[in-house]
Every structure is written in structure tokens, then in C-alpha cells.
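It is worth pausing here to work through a concrete case rather than discussing structure prediction in the abstract. The textbook approach is simple: state the sequence, then state the predicted structure, then interpret. We follow exactly that order.
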Amino acid sequence: MKYTIAVLSILLCTYVAAQNDTTMEIPYNKIPDYPETYTSGTIVSRMIDGLGFRYYWATEDLREQDLNYQPSEDTRTIGAIVDHLYGLSKLIYNSAKKEVNDRTKPSQEILTFEEKRIRTLQNFKMASEVFISVVDLDEHNVIFKSQNGTTTFPFWNLINGPIEDAVWHAGQIVILRRAAGNPIPKGVNVFLGQRREN
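Step two, the predicted structure:
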């Protein structure tokens, strides 16, 4: 019995470490192959894959001066948009896992840009992998816990909220980095979901 508990503990620790490991392969330099069938789950998964691809290339090779770029005083910097997208990726993944977004505890994370970028992409990938086999999206609500209690929103709000908001902000990064003098690499084709090398 002790041996079984020890083995399970090691496996759990390994799994948790893998979820937080920023040395894992960075997903979405291209869109994965599409599913063979159309279901509600595969469609949502594909939407997230498209988002992941856009975010990957929107944030590829960003420089420190790009992260600090701000076209006017009343707009976010690119770095602030990256922070917001990281938060949105956690909301999307929590909905996939059917977990609560707990706003009663302040975040203690201090991450570099590259760590945030990788974790954002990993969150998109893990959410996509969950949703691809989901049959009933009604079970994947968006749940917020605050000092005032718990509020639940239907899956529809995840689509028009965090998913579409993240696409919107990935586009903002593309525009702002061009204005900062560092456009995205040439050849990125969102229709095909890959980068042409020529």
C-alpha cells in the first residue's frame, strides 16, 4: 500500500510539473491537423487552435521595446495586452477543466514575458485538447468566485467573451508591433495555419 501511494505521489508530482513546465515544446507555430468530424467540441477546439496560432506569431520575436510600446497614454502597452491574454487563457482552460476562476486570492505569479507567452500557448493547447472530445458544452460554464459569492455563466459567454476577446487582442498586438517597427514575420498564413518560408 505504501509503495502504491509513493508511486501515485511521484506520478502526480510529475504531472503537475509538466503542466507548469515552460521547457515543453511551444505549441502553435502551425495549426494542428483538423479533426475528421464536426462536433461542438471539435469546432471549439479548432477555434482555440486558430487563436493559438495567431497568438504564437503575434508574440514571436517581440523585443523589450515592443513590450513597452504604447501609442498613446490612454492605451495599453503590448506587455499589458500580453498580461491580459495570459489571464484570458487561464479562463478558457478553467472552463475546459470545469474549474472555478477564483478572484478572492491575488495572483502571486511573477513571470517573464517568455514564461507568460509559453504558458498562454500551453493553456490554449490544453484547453483545445479537452474540448476536442467534449460532447456536452453545457457542462463547461464560466464560473467566477469573488468576495460577493459565485457567479456562473453559460458556455456561450466563453465564446463571445474570453475566446473572441483573445482573438481581438492578438490582433492588437500585430498592429501595435508593426507601429513599433517590428512587424510579425513574413509568410504567416492564418487561412492555411502555417508560415510559408519563401
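Step three, interpretation. The radius of gyration is 18 Å. The chain has a mean pLDDT of 89.
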